[in-house]
Amino acid sequence: MDYSLVQAIKFGHIQIVKNHDIESLNNSRGLSGESYLHLGVASGNEAIVRYLIKILGDVDLMTIKDHEELTPLHWACLEGKHLALGAILEHSKRIGRLEAILNSRDVSGESPLYLCCLNGFYNGAKILLEQPSIDINIQSNNGNTPLHIAVINGHMNCIELLIQRGSLYNIKNNNNQTSKELWLKSSLSNNNSYLFYSKNDDKKNDFLNFNTHYKNNYNHDDTIINADSGNDNDYYIGAVLEYSPRIYNYRDPNETPLAYVLGNVKEYDEYARQAASQGAQIIVFPEYGLLGGAFATRDGVFPYLEIIPDPSESSSPIIPCNGDEFLNRTILQALSCIAIKNKIVMVVDMGDLQYCNNETDSNCPSDGRFQYNTQVAFSQKGEILAKYHKSHLYGESYFNPSIPPKPVVFTTDFNVTFGMLICFDILFQEPQQQLIQNYSIKNLVYSTEWVNVNYAYAREIQQSWSKLNNANVLAANIGSTSLVSGSGIYSNGNFLSSFLNPTTKPENKLLVSRIPKDPSIQAPSVNRKESGVPKDPSIQASSVNYKESNYQAFKHESFGSSVETPTSINATIVPFTIEPNQVNQSITSINNNFTCNFIYSTSSNVESGQLYSLISFSGFFNGFFYAQLCSASRCGSNDPESCFDNVFESQSIFENASIDGNFYDDYRIYPTVTTYPLTENYLKNYNLGDYSLNISDIKEYFVGMSLFAIQ
């Protein structure tokens, strides 16, 4: 595919698209067999979709399918793009192929309506059901109807819509289960007991007497959930939000610090409602999602802070929503009330203020107050379950670290105990070692504003922690740009769902997954229909260089002047180019007597002459800790200066690859593998403390792999 055209489609540059000779490129296909029209649908730009359809003329869109037999209409349902969906229906109706595309089935036998109901895309399902030729009860290869899959995933609005439109709830799937039976086994039936009454029942329309909590027609196109079989008591449903906070409006006299934070709180309320409507029992929000993070001094962050009580020091439940003593702590009270209203456990990052004096605490700061970057967990009843102070600050001179690092856990009413960590804490021995050894934590809530670097991307580090500790990780990151993005839900290293904002513009994404309480249970790997992973070849930025102006701008706004560029380490970089069908090629890089080796074999499907590099480092890492690094990665261009760039995609398939180094025995090693797309768990065979990482049977395009060791 023409990369410049792919980029123009993705970013909505209609004029650039029109300047291309698309007619001669209509037979081009991407990695998954997707066409330019598929990519246009994924972009959600209606003008581009209509233009691409116009170029096709009277072509039957049923003939344009990817490798999974997904039509552009399927993609519109997967991506939650109702404007693109409407344009496709108009075209298909005009050429007399509306019924065919409405009821088309992919390799799994799943129709567009099925996928809308799978992903909770209410608006899309509604548009499809307005078409008279739609088969509302069409079954997939496993026998599930759209109503089955809506019930399995707890999409209340879709369930209500399907029943209103006459969906049959006594059809059995291949497991001999009806959607009504699945409904009655689910917790959602508790609040909607009349939903599946027979239409012949004397109560007539009582089955539509929904709890008012579910009556709003939310657009759930940003929510993704994984369904799986198994005892409901063995699983819980968790959500994470990748969220980019509002831009502070300095020109508005009404934009006070409190007003700014409450604007973000209002957004949290909406996403909590969306998550709860999908059956989520817990939602994790990112670091600095409320505060915004643009602080340089202690006095600058002070107006954003509130005194947060410690529930471990209270003999009675602390519920800010109900307490008069919290009337002047508006943020805390609002969050507590949101948890109650949506009946969901909420984990939120905010600022904690604790006054002190030298008489009671010799470590009291000169301004008489401790200021902490703090995770707070609220129960479904609005009770403060726990608060955790960040232990390891990343250039946050306006906050105090928790000294010594204190592990914090909390237990929910769905019988899962969670440990708590914030951002940089994930790389340090404490308090995570106590969480694992003393509390046997198997579930972690993790709020972060992670700065991506090509040897330690956010999602890869999250996955690595999950695998190393055989744990579930619910990780929420800021979605400001591709530099600071990457959220996901992981179980023992397996991706349940994940997302990366590939652009330079803010983007929010809600991820919802069904999670085994015991991570040793084989969790399903993500696939195209289940994850927040982008589908088109350009969706992840090909190369982002933040070493100069872009990084400086980000540094100024988010961290203040004390933070060094993540790539300022004095590393040894050995560039090399790849060619098709190379076998057991060996590269070595040495830094301060630390030897890093990379051995690889390529397939016939590679970018000939593409530059990669092997990076080694051993020493004091950016003023934070002693570390060793062995990292092989695709460079941003064919210029060796680009070999520290952030690169998220590749067009080269490697047959196998291995990396190793002579690491110090007392260093903790984080293994990571980056592919495009990022969906597989290539860490399965890695054991804690191994000095090498070997991967084979690589299904995706290879970007890089690393062993990052920290003292």
From TrEMBL:
SMART domains: ANK (SM00248). Pfam families: Ank_2 (PF12796), CN_hydrolase (PF00795), Vanin_C (PF19018). ANK repeats lie at residues 32-64, 142-174. PROSITE patterns: ANK_REP_REGION (PS50297), ANK_REPEAT (PS50088), CN_HYDROLASE (PS50263). It comes from the Eukaryota. SUPFAM superfamilies: Ankyrin repeat (SSF48403), Carbon-nitrogen hydrolase (SSF56317). Residues 243-517 form the CN hydrolase domain. GO terms for molecular function: hydrolase activity, acting on carbon-nitrogen (but not peptide) bonds, in linear amides. Keywords: ANK repeat, Glycoprotein, Hydrolase, Signal. Belongs to the carbon-nitrogen hydrolase superfamily. BTD/VNN family. This is CN hydrolase domain-containing protein. The lineage of its organism: Eukaryota, Amoebozoa, Evosea, Eumycetozoa, Dictyostelia.
